[in-house]
Amino acid sequence: MSASSDDRLAHRLARAQAVADARGLALTTLRRQVYTLIAASERPIGAYDLLDALEPQRGRVPPTTVYRVLDFLVEHGFVHRIESKNAFLACCDVEHPHQGQFLICEACGEAVEIPGAELAQQLAGSAPAHGFEVRRQVVELSGLCASCQRDPHGAP
Ligand SMILES: [Zn+2]
Ligand SMILES: [Zn+2]
């Protein structure tokens, strides 16, 4: 891991800790470890990959325990669940709770969060006119990221 990605991770952790402190949420050791693994990953990471990555630090953690931690992190906006991948991505703006919207590369699996609450609000706001009650909102655009467009055969 390069120095700059270490810095970026440290910055994300500090922001998440500050948000947790401000809202009176306990970032327990396991919650922090799971968040750190998600924040360090360029790609959305699934629960079973998280279990494997935790093993050197924690031993075998029961899947239900990790799912509870993931529920907590999603509920409080520290991470987003990428529905189409059944995987998790660290939020880019933990200070402002929002629905996420994402660009997901079909070739390398990288996912990028697109900031901007207006689009999500506009979509959700159109529902009542149809007598519709929104329970869950998923905005995921799939395609090719810039580097996979340049080098379609170089993708892992
Ligand atoms: Zn977000
Ligand atoms: Zn890609």
From TrEMBL:
Alphabetical keyword list: Cytoplasm, DNA-binding, Iron, Metal-binding, Repressor, Transcription, Transcription regulation, Zinc
CDD domains: Fur_like (cd07153)
Location relative to the cell: Cytoplasm
Chief localization: cytoplasm
Keyword Cytoplasm: yes
Classification via InterPro entries: FUR, Fur_C, WH-like_DNA-bd_sf, WH_DNA-bd_sf
Subunit (UniProt): Homodimer.
Family: Belongs to the Fur family.
PANTHER family, per the entry: ZINC UPTAKE REGULATION PROTEIN
Protein name as catalogued: Ferric uptake regulation protein
